[in-house]
Each structure stands twice: as C-alpha cells, then as structure tokens.
C-alpha cells in the first residue's frame, strides 16, 4: 500500500509555542528552480507584538540564570542540532540549491558556533569587566549586563548559519531575542526553533518570525519595549529609516554587515548587546 506523504507545516515560534500567524497568512517557499517546497507563516504586526511580549516576559528568568547554566543550555542546543544533522542538510540543499557538501559544512559550522558561544557564557564577564583604579578606600568594579530584548533581522542569504550567528551571541549574557528569519530560506529557522524548544531553553527566550523583513522590521524598530536592534541582515532594507525609528525610544542599533560570513563569531558581537554596570563598595578599614 502506498503511504500518503505528511508534509510539514512551518509555523511561527512565539513564547515556546508554534502558532500560525494570527492573520492566517502564509507564503510559498520554493527551490531555486521554482519547485514548491512548503508553505510558511507570513508574520503580521500582531505577531511581532506578541513576540516582543514573550521576549520581555522571559528576560528576568534567562538573565537571572547563572552563566554556567546558560552555557549548559546553549551547549545542549548544539547537541540536539547534531542529532538532527541530516534533516538540516536536506533542508539547506532543497532551499538554497547548494551541494550536499556545502550544506554539510554550513550545518557543521552552525553547531560549532553554538559550542563556541556556549563556552563564553561564564568567561565573558571576566574579559569585558574590570576593577577600576580609584582614589579613596573604595572598590570600583564594572561588569557587563544584558541589554534586554534584542530584535534581529537575520542574514537573508543563509538559511541556518546566518540565523545561528545572529541569535547565539545575544543569548550569552542573558538577552532574549525576537528574530526575523531569512525570507528566501525560512524553513531551517523553524526547524531550529524545534531544536530550541527541546533544548531546555525557556519559552520566550528566542522567538522566530517568518515572512517579510521589510514589513516586520519597522514595527520592531519602533516598538517601545525593544532594547536593542540588530540589523545584521537588513542591508537591502532602508536601514537608516529603521535606525531613526529606533532612536525614538533610545534603542541601541547595530548596523548591517556585508560579506560571505556576516555575523562571524566574535566577542564584539556579545559586547554590543550588553550594558556596563559600575558598582562602588567601601573597603574595610580594619
């Protein structure tokens, strides 16, 4: 007997759940040759607002976790992604039309980046913080703290690696994320959300929107409860207008990055999503 295929439905990922867009809209995802692959949810303004609400609700828990615990969770993401390696290779081959070897290299690098950033969770404060010399009987210590809710336009020319490279550094210090995935290659973003949902990452820490960055990004840029805006994948948008919209709420903005490896792993990508807190404490005179 011939089995009927069970096609996958690609939804959004909001607050740890997988809802359809509240608008009911979808868009077709096709191969480079024009063949139909799947329908994906076309996120609306309401979806973007719901994503920010979910991200804000998750800030205290994620930022309040120990750095060691965050590192364990991010490493678990790498473990689960490794276990679904073949699925991601197949999706990338279908979406991007690249060779299996190139798709395999992309998945391998995505896993390695999760591991790299996981290793920095309990070390970054030692590198970015410092004890400041002051006059008088005081300790003066500067420590990096998370900015809060980070809205990200992911690199648009990569289905998985660009997405991971944009999300992971924001999570290291305790930020939560609302990310607009690649419009051309959105399927791996929802598959990655499935990995996140089964990797001990609390619901709401990462929220994934699929659809049109040109439509969604302005709503996120002007949202009063977004603390930072990463435009790494917004080079083809009017990103100056997005920066101006973000300025209304004094939102920190990171500009677009170009090149074959935008959002390459670096301590600077972690640092740009932190605020420096300086603490004074008196020295004992005994």
UniProtKB/TrEMBL annotation:
Pfam families documented for this protein: Aldedh
Lineage top rank: taxon: Bacteria
Position of the signal peptide: none
GO molecular function, one term: oxidoreductase activity
SUPFAM superfamilies reported in the protein's UniProt record: ALDH-like
Keywords annotated in UniProt: Oxidoreductase
Coiled-coil regions listed: none
InterPro entries: Ald_DH/histidinol_DH, Ald_DH_N, Aldehyde_DH_dom
Residue intervals of the Aldehyde dehydrogenase domain: 21-254
Protein name: Aldehyde dehydrogenase
Organism of origin: Schumannella soli
